[in-house]
Amino acid sequence: MASMIQLPKGTRDILPDEMHKWYHVEEVVRRLCEDFGYKEIRTPVFESTDLFVRGVGDTTDIVQKEMFTMVDAGGRSLTLRPEGTSPVVRAVLENSLYALPMPLKLYYNPLTCYRAEKPQAGRQREFHQFGVELFGAATPAADAEVILVAFELFSRFGLADRLLLKLNSIGCPVCRAQYREALLSYLEGHRAALCDTCRQRMDKNPMRVFDCKSEICQGIATGAPLITDYLCGDCRAHFEALQQTLLALKIPFEVDPTIVRGLDYYRRTVFEFVSGDIGAQATVCGGGRYDGLVEELGGDPLPGIGFGLGIERLIMSLDSAGYAFPPLPGVTVYVGMTDASLDVLTTKLVTDLRRAGISTEKDIVGRSVKAQMKYAGKLGVRYALIIGQNEVETGLVTVKDMQGGEPFEARLDSLAQALLERIQAQ
Ligand code: ATP
Ligand code: MG
């Protein structure tokens, strides 16, 4: 026997028996985005590597160690997208979407993302994100709207009380420059104890120490100066206004000055929604304002804010909250036959039923009548019928109600009609 080939590490199959969860999440997300006026965008699975080096930032974990990069036959370096924001910005620039009336409100769902990370519960190498990106509005009201999209999603799923919104402002290039000095001189004093990565990235991106997973670095970060003490007047006013709006909307939050986000391009508002229910990988949604990104990727200045929300972590949160996902509708009718000579006739019959919108299966295995009925039972159909020579001659068939109702007689030439009436009457 040939040896079996297994899934690549960190990937998983989504099997038919869990698909109802994905369909449901997709449907709720689509409805939510329509309610907020966001339009869907789909971008390629791979992009030029440079897009992520510039768009995510070369001091980030993503660019330094998590990218799946390949070289194509033409010698071009391509990377499987690790996130959705920079591809969307590229698409906005490439398709001149910035010329549309502002604000430009886009979403993606579900977007497969690829990161070469150590797989563990809640952390895969291929995973899915729902995300929104809002361009052309630099106001605190725009920040509040984006946060509200995520909050409203959690509310619609009954999860709002089970997630904590953590909020921070990481300032702008003006105030961050001063903060950087203060942070650097603090970190200098701990240089020897920092992990290699933090030490190497200290000059370019000292704030990454807050995102570092090493316990020693986390300890050092606890005593570090906080960005919130260094915000300039404009950034402070922006952050204040956002908090006032969230308070007025009764969206609970906690200011956490250690939330800096992994990605380099964030400005001012950053936020995360953290779950208490799903173990160590607890951040379900992360986002923030990235006013400098469009310029970084070659466009004219255009403010932007968005978030990425991990669908696997969302489904984990829903499962642990005991959420009742609606099941997918099963097959409604089974059409059996007494012998294979009736194959064409029964195929035509089921085609009529399917066109009438009745989900129907027929025998294609060549089973005995008894085995066909047993299979119909396993399928869980509501109605089953068997076509034989007798039915063909009389033009009548007895339909069995598999859920205990009385059997009834129907004409073969108007079977779809008869079944539809029964189904609608249920
Ligand atoms: P983490 O700190 O967990 O590594 P991150 O900051 O790298 O998260 P983002 O880049 O902000 O994550 O991605 C947004 C969301 O996507 C995360 O909040 C999470 O729900 C999900 N996510 C990120 N990486 C993974 C992964 N490897 N597997 C599954 N979900 C992920
Ligand atoms: Mg990560």
Q: Would you identify the regions where 5 or more consecutive residues have pLDDT less than 50?
A: none
Task: Kindly provide the radius of gyration, computed on alpha-carbon positions and rounded to a whole number of angstroms.
Answer: 28 Å
Average per-residue pLDDT, rounded, comes to: 95
Supply the helix-strand structural class: alpha+beta
The total count of helices amounts to 15
Euclidean distance between termini CA atoms:
51 Å
What share of residues is helical? Answer: 25-40%
How would a crystallographer describe the biggest sheet?
Answer: 8 strands, mixed
- Give the ligands present: adenosine-5'-triphosphate, magnesium ion
Strand content: 15-25%
Please give the oligomerization state of what you see.
single chain
Q: Compute the number of strand runs.
A: 16
What does this structure look like?
It is a single chain. This protein is an alpha+beta fold and 426 residues long. 37% of the residues lie in helices and 21% in strands. It has 15 helices and 16 strands. The longest helix is centred in the N-terminal third of the chain and has 18 residues, at 19-36. The two termini are 51 Å apart. It binds adenosine-5'-triphosphate and magnesium ion (MG). Magnesium ion is lined by residues 61, 262.
